[in-house]
Amino acid sequence: MLASNLRVQYDADTVRDWNFNTGERRTRGLWQFADMLPVDAEHAVSLGEGGTPLLATARLGTYIGIANLYVKDETRNPTQSYKDRVSTVAVSYAKQLGAPVVATASSGNAGASLAAYAARAGIPCVVVSMKGAAGPMMTQIRKLGAHLIMMADKTQRWPFLAAGVKRHNWFVTSPYSAPVVGSTPIGIEGYKTIAYEIVQDLGRAPDWMAMPVCYGDALSGIYQGFMDMKNAGVIQQIPRFVAAEAHGSLKQALDNGSDMVPAATVKYDTLAASVGAAQSAFQALYALRQSNGVAVPVDNDGLVNLQELIAGQEGMLLELASVMPFVAVRRLREAGVISSKDLVVCLATGSGLKDTDKSTTAWSEIPVSTVGVDEVLGATMEALHRRFVEA
Fold first, then answer.
1. pLDDT digit string (tens) for 256-308?
2. I need a labelling partner for 174 at 20 to 30 A (CA). Which of 84, 168, 187, 230 fits?
3. 7-33 tens-digit pLDDT
4. Cβ partners under 8 Å of residue 246, min gap 6
5. Which domains occur in the chain, in start order?
6. From CA 50, how far away is CA 27, in angstroms rounded?
């Protein structure tokens, strides 16, 4: 069961009349923007998603070299990821259609989110994943009651879902045909609300918007959200987008000037499993071109260390995919593409608790103390001095 690929076109007056510059309706979360979504609020299947904080990060900004660096912290959503914005809209729509099953192919976040909203709606949920997916996310999916399938050959996930659509009328929220065009466009509409909330908080659009990108669902949706506001005269310009990607598919397309987004050569196993696909989609390429954006390939080098630096300096434990935008922004700053005075927003897409099995492999066991309090206290003070004073 597929929704139309045509985006819903909203009356500019609806967008223009919305008071984006104040947070007066923030307590209503994502569904405060129901007038700009394809489902009425009265039919919403909601867990309280949206309304996530936009946090200034002074110490991290100093490290990266940007005075006005912000994090849009999507880990505060009900299942700890930005996918809840897709799921709330998609499941609300599927319920109205009377879909017998909702399903997705997922490395983790999308599956956990869909499972939660399907449970809320009382609709059976099927998640098909693959070897190498993050263990904590698979646990989350199972705990939320979805039927989880692990495929040895991940290329069989889409034919499986296609068969579910054809034979049993499933509503599938992820891509399930090649070449990939992205997830259900109904669900992607939910990502627009990230742009709306950012303008609510800043009173303007940022100069740059950076995020981890796989197929570009969030990139496409957030771009459209800023365009809604620009076309209505709420903002004067949209941000330039930065796509932090694992294998370089979008960068190749941008460099080649082609509309064909190639499948990149996979030279390593990315720790950022959430964005591990080798090929992106045209929707992402379009948003980058229209915003004069850039794509930056980010490998595993230093990713875990930066994750821990962000956690230790700013108190935000982010999944490894969510660390990638900070790597990309730092590189662009060093290259002079981003100015030290630019206002930059990085999208934190998911919680670091989601992929602890990927980020703690180098850890050793903490020894169990058998000595007295004085000795433990002395050793603790020495450790604190090394970590916070000498460093």
1. 998 999 999 999 888 988 888 889 999 999 999 999 999 999 999 999 999 99
2. 230
3. 445 566 666 666 665 544 545 799 999
4. 214, 270, 272, 275, 276, 277, 297, 298, 299, 324
5. 1-82+180-391 (3.40.50.1100)
6. 9
